Amino acid sequence: MSSPTDRPAGSTGQPPSGRGSGRLGATAMAATRHLPRGVWDPAAQLAGAALSRFPVPAVKQWMLNAETMTGTPPCHAQTRRAVVSWARTLVTSMQLPGWSRERIDQQVDFDPGQFQVLRDAVATRGAVVALPHMASWDLAGAWVAGRGVPISTVAEQLPDAEFELFVRTRERLGMKVYGHRQPQVASRLVADLREGRLISLVADRDFSRRGVAVNWLTATGPVPGSMPPGPAHLAVLTGAALVGVVCSYTSPDRMRIEFSPVLEPADQATSRERAAALTCRLAEWFSPRIAAQVHDWHMFQPFFTGLGADPARTTGTLS
Fold first, then answer.
1. Nearest 5°: phi and psi at 216?
2. CA-CA distance, 150 to 48, in Å (whole number)?
3. Any idea where the domains of the chain sit in the sequence?
4. E strands of 115-233, at which residues?
5. pTM of the predicted model as reported, rounded to 2 decimal places
């Protein structure tokens, strides 16, 4: 589940070589569909252990982001867990189309009351869900779609082969996927809302640098940042409910999905101001949940304002 400013799970940045590298990356990602846990998990653990001791730039950036959010430098074990969590998310995304409905259900923990609030909103006023880069939002989307809630989402258009792989994978899970460069994406999302589809967007990191200024509530106090306004703007424009969603791994075979109450826009003068205020509320709801499970936060690129390299010019080995 992605937004126009999101880089989907498993993307590794876009090398200058363009199309050929895209095909190579797509081939490598698709190959993980056939790897059993007994193969990929030990490999991820070894990679995590090595990268926690000798971090590449992307892992160093995650360490900075994690320290900013929690107030404490992550130890080697936490950094290893972050790398393993990212690898698990990539493998899960690729393997999900081959999972049975029962297996997907067995992987997910949730609060039935929280989920019913979302279902009621979809059935009445429409709903937009916004997620941070945590755990497997593809598993969350497959689980929700399997409960009869149709989903529309937007993905960044990576090199053609990678983009097509992610689109095929997500469509097989029951999602309608738009590329962020497709004409009139916003209008298509509005139409989908009116048809009863749930709009799902990853929304913690602002790649455009034209987002809403927010304060992230960290362990040492508020830290400035920005977030894409898309989810809140869509909710304000259509009257749909905005619901925050956070995913986190609770065991090697379980993931928890937490749903916020409906976040209503403040009584501001203009729709732009209401969307900005709603985005700030979303950041406030995300903050403690990211800090509590920071190893599942796949933020390997610059995030907080003034901390890290220029996001527009940084590509890491993980994103």
1. -85, 130
2. 36
3. 19-313
4. 127-131, 151-155, 175-179, 198-202, 212-218, 221-227
5. 0.87
